[in-house]
Amino acid sequence: MKRPLKFIEIVIAIVALNVISYQLFTRFDFTEGNIYTLSKSSKNIAKDLSTEVNVKLFLSDNLPAQFVKTKQDIEDYLAEYVALSGGKIKVETINPLKDDEDEKMAQVLGIPPLQLQVIEKDQRQTVKAYMGLAVLKNDPEKEADENNPFAQLEKYEVIPMLTDLRSFEYDFSAALKKVSSLEEKTIGFLSGHGEHEVISNQPSFTKPEPRQDYALRDVLEKNYTVMDVTLGDAANLEEIDTLVVAGPTEAIPDSEVGQIEEFVTSGGNAIFLIDQIEIKEGIMAAKMTETFENLLAPWGVVVEKALVKDATNTNASFSQGFFSFSLPYPYWVRVRNLNKENSITSQLESFILPWVSPLRVEEKEDVTVEVLAETSGRYGLEQAEVMVPKQLEEGQELAEGEEMEMVLQDNPMNLDPQQQSFNIPRNTKEPLPLVVQAQKKDDAGKVIILGDSDFITRGYAGQFTGNVLFFLNAIDVFTLGEDLVSIRSKGVTDRPIAELSEAQKNSMRWLNILLIPILVIAFGLTRRMMRNARKRSV
Question: Which domains does the chain have, with CATH numbers?
Fold first, then answer.
């Protein structure tokens, strides 16, 4: 009789435990970066919603098995947002395949049908399905209309595909923030001086797309209005929240520089990506004609006429005839020496700056400069200008005791990746600043200055994820504040092998050679000592 009673007690205990755990649900996230846990910023965005927001979740019932977990994760995420919002987020799940009107609504909002692969009865088939959502904000002053579901709609944002949830938290939190905000933020890209163009990341079949373009318009337009800015007498910078000056090649007149300085003084922020070295065909380089000193002088920062070659670098791929090769390239600097106190760089691990010029900071009483990124301790500089003896005129001779006059001369630089040596010093020294943030005491706005404009062009942005993250972090912090930065960087990891000195490399080499023999000898001696001890004890 005791065994049936024990069995019943166990069943009751299990049922009670399940009921209690359902009521007191909690989840432990041991992943690096807590990628399955909402960040503090997301929680604050949900809690601080000023108005009611409707979420229409378009999910089909016929999802293939590989997307069932994705569906559950989406529903779990949204449930957490709903709980945090105190009921201000309303979620409605819709299966567009069951109703033609619902499917038409999904298409009007910009949520496309997906063609998903499924294997049934040993055959590969394609099924039509929907996995997307829309975040909508209604205008209470507009009247509802049964025949028009969008009659009261004021704003909306869409996440068209939810097949990959790695960016879901950022995209959804950004959509909540954008829909609930009272004003639209605007990013302006300066034009008219040979700057990089900002284009869509969708391929164009009507015209060629140069690799030097910034294919970031679609990404930026998720959160901002993006516009080109041409300065002049009729220019109106009041519409801009953050101004980007992306690699000008022609002089910027003092009158326009004055407009930019006034814009920063009145509370606008600016990002200056300034090149001083031009990379030419054949991987040769020379200094640019324009210095842009008038643009940077108010903040006491100078972009040097030199290129950094750093022991901490990444591989670069080059083509030669029919062959292509990849090898470590010191002129593509892997920036790992980052300011962990600044929100722009605090959660980044590294990014790549190809052919970057160092900065020189001249102290000014009314300017505060914060270094965001530096070189490593082992670097060299390839100068675009060198001091050489002045050429004497024909028949001219130096007087006794007279020294040869030295003059500055342009120095064309050979950046061939197959050089025998890049002459990087072995000894460490004080790092040089590569990215700085500056602010004048009387200014309400800030500026970021970087001696490279190519690092987020189409050719590099696709290779190096950290480059785009750094740029978007700077845009977000300057324009929206720090809310979204911590969300975007979750789960992004970069684990390059740490730089080792020659002494450390030799130590590791000899350790690998000698360690195993030493362990074998130690094991043998231990066994022998144990055997001898047993013999003596007998």
Answer: 36-180 (3.40.30.10), 186-389+405-488 (3.40.50)
